């Protein structure tokens, strides 16, 4: 089991570019482009899209509540999924109004996935951070993998690194994740 972020995906010891992939939160801004990028690299049959509503997603897709650990686990085991992109999160503006719910959604879903990886069900886990967490001086296009928080986060919505808020440019993240995840 290896936990990797997209910048070091090529060094993952169990990396197989044809591993089945699950994108949780696939109907969001980042997920829609990430699914398309991953499918173009790995083939549609190897990339599962999951969101609360699957009717707008291109198949294979499933309606899935990512806070339901048993349902997520069942899909991972049943389909032989070895890699998860955890994009489920509450957008920053909504999270500022409901910080407890944002924290629960963002972190509970992340821990469901991390627990499965810890148990050996997954080889690789990816989860993005909102660019809002890094402050206004961080570039919004081609954001570097390593950057400095300036100023430090001051609101509930940016204090969770698992928050994949709308400030992150979907195209850039989708390209970065797909490019790095498919390198051998």
Overview in brief:
With 184 residues, the chain is an alpha/beta fold. It has helices spanning 29-42, 69-79, 92-97, 99-118, 170-181, and strands at residues 20-24, 47-51, 61-63, 81-86, 124-126.
How would you portray this structure in words?
It is a single chain. The chain has 184 residues and is of the alpha/beta class. Helices cover 34% and strands 12% of the residues. The chain has one domain: Rossmann fold, CATH 3.40.50.720. It has 5 helices and 5 strands; from the N terminus they run βαββαβααβα. A 5-stranded parallel sheet has the order 3-2-1-4-5, with helices on both faces. Helix 1 links the parallel strand 1 (20-24) and strand 2 (47-51). Residues 1-13 and 153-184 have low confidence and may be disordered.
SSE layout and pairing:
Blueprint: E1 20-24, H1 29-42, E2 47-51, E3 61-63, H2 69-79, E4 81-86, H3 92-97, H4 99-118, E5 124-126, H5 170-181
Parallel strand pairs: 1-2, 1-4, 2-3, 4-5
Helix pairs in contact: 1-5
If classified by CATH, what would the architecture be?
3-Layer(aba) Sandwich
Molecular shape: globular
- Number of discrete domains: 1
- Total beta-strand segments: 5
Oligomerization status of the protein chains: single chain
Q: Count of helical segments?
A: 5
Roughly what fraction of the amino acids lie in strands? 5-15%
Question: Any idea of the CATH topology?
Answer: Rossmann fold
Q: What kind of sheet is the major sheet?
A: 5 strands, parallel
